[in-house]
Design goal:
CATH architecture of the largest domain: 2-Layer Sandwich
Radius of gyration: 22 Å
Distance between the termini: 57 Å
Number of strands: 8
Largest sheet: 4 strands, antiparallel
Helix content: 40-55%
Low-confidence stretches: 1-8, 106-112, 213-219
CATH topology of the largest domain: Alpha-Beta Plaits
Oligomer: single chain
Number of helices: 11
Strand order of the largest sheet: 2-3-1-4
C-alpha cells in the first residue's frame, strides 16, 4: 500500500452541526470562512464543505472537515486558535454545537443527501445494555420504508465520548416518518435508564441527489460547485422552454394562465435536470471532486470555465 492509500485509509471527518441565531446568517458565513482558512493551515487537513440550513427538516449548518488521521483532527479540535475563534463566534450561535468524528475507512455511510446524525451519551457501566438496545433499533429502522444505510461508531477515548449513529433514507418524508414512528419512540423510552443524553440532528443538502455519492477516500462535491453546475443547466432550460413552448404554445395557443404555464415549465425543468445534471457532472468530475494533490487551482479553473459558459449563454440568448 502506498503512502497516499494509507493516508486515505486512516482519514477521518469532523462533522459539526450548529444552529445560528436568526438574522445572523451572513455574519456566521463570514466567520465560518475564517474558521475554514485557519483549519486549512493545520497539518493533515484535506478538505472542508459547509452545508447551509435547508428548512423545514434541516435547520442546522453542517460543516464537514476532513483530516488524514485522528491525531491531526484532534490537534485541530484542541488547538488554541480554534478555541479563540469559537469564543468569538458564540454570540451568533443558538444552543450548543454537535461535533463528531467519523472514521472514513469504516464500512457504512457518512452524512449524505438525507441523513440523521444521532449521538448518545451512555451511563458508565451500561455499555453492554446500550449495545444490545442499539441492535434492536437498528433492526427496526432497517425495515422502515426508504431506509438506505446505517453506520455505528463507538466513542474514541480522549476525542469523542459519545456513541454515534448515522442513518440514511431516500427521501425527507421517509426519514421523518421513521423519526416520528411510534416504534422508535417506544425504543427510546426503553433506552432511558442507560442513557445520559440522546439527540438527533438532520443533514440535508439541496442538489446532492443529482450527483454521484462520494467514493471511498474522497469527499462529496462542494455545495457551491453543485449550485454553479445546476445553474449552468437550469438557465438555458428555463429560457428555451419559455421562448419556444411556454409563451407561444401554452399561453398563446392553449390559452393557459401564466401561473399554470409556469408550473408546467418548472416540472419540465426538474425532469430534464434529473437527467442532465448527472450526465454533465460526470464530465466535470475533475472539478467537482478534484484529486487530493490538485490544489486550489483546479477549483478556480473549473469555476472560471463555468463563468465563461454563463457568459456564453447570456450572449447567445441576447441574440434570440
Amino acid at each position: 500500500m502506498n503512502d497516499r492509500s494509507a493516508a486515505l485509509d486512516s482519514a477521518v471527518t469532523l462533522v459539526t452541526q450548529t444552529r445560528v441565531r436568526e438574522g445572523m446568517a451572513e455574519q456566521f458565513g463570514q466567520w465560518q470562512s475564517t474558521i475554514s482558512a485557519t483549519a486549512a493551515e493545520f497539518p493533515g487537513f484535506i478538505t472542508q464543505s459547509v452545508l447551509p440550513p435547508n428548512p423545514p427538516l434541516q435547520v442546522d449548518w453542517v460543516i464537514q472537515q476532513r483530516f488524514d488521521s485522528v491525531e491531526a483532527a484532534s490537534a485541530w479540535l484542541r488547538s488554541e486558535r480554534r478555541t479563540r475563534l469559537l469564543d468569538a463566534g458564540q454570540p451568533m450561535l443558538a444552543g450548543h454545537d454537535d461535533v463528531h468524528l467519523v472514521r472514513d475507512s469504516t464500512a457504512g455511510v457518512r452524512p449524505a443527501p438525507v441523513s440523521a446524525v444521532i449521538s448518545s451519551r451512555v451511563r458508565p457501566g451500561q455499555e453492554a445494555a446500550f449495545r444490545a438496545w442499539e441492535q434492536r433499533i437498528a433492526l427496526a429502522q432497517a425495515k422502515s420504508p426508504g431506509f438506505q444505510g446505517y453506520r455505528f461508531e463507538p466513542p474514541i477515548p480522549g476525542v469523542q465520548e459519545d456513541w454515534l449513529a448515522i442513518l440514511r433514507f431516500d427521501t425527507e418524508r421517509n426519514l421523518q416518518a421513521w423519526l416520528d414512528a411510534p416504534e422508535r419512540k417506544k425504543l427510546l423510552e426503553e433506552a432511558a435508564p442507560f442513557l445520559e443524553e440522546f439527540h438527533a440532528r438532520v443533514v440535508r443538502t439541496g442538489f446532492e441527489q443529482w450527483f454521484p455519492s462520494a467514493a471511498a477516500g474522497t469527499s462529496a462535491p462542494a455545495v457551491w460547485k453543485m449550485n454553479m453546475l445546476v445553474l449552468l443547466l437550469l438557465y438555458p432550460i428555463v429560457f428555451l422552454f419559455g421562448a419556444w413552448v411556454q409563451t407561444p404554445l401554452l399561453m398563446g395557443k392553449a390559452g393557459l394562465p401564466f401561473w399554470l404555464a409556469l408550473f408546467i415549465g418548472n416540472v419540465v425543468s426538474v425532469l430534464l435536470l434529473n437527467w442532465l445534471v448527472p450526465w454533465t457532472g460526470r464530465g466535470f468530475g475533475w472539478w467537482l471532486v478534484p484529486a487530493r494533490n490538485a490544489g486550489g487551482r483546479t477549483s478556480l479553473a473549473g469555476a472560471g470555465m463555468i463563468v465563461l459558459l454563463y457568459a456564453g449563454w447570456l450572449f447567445l440568448f441576447s441574440k434570440l
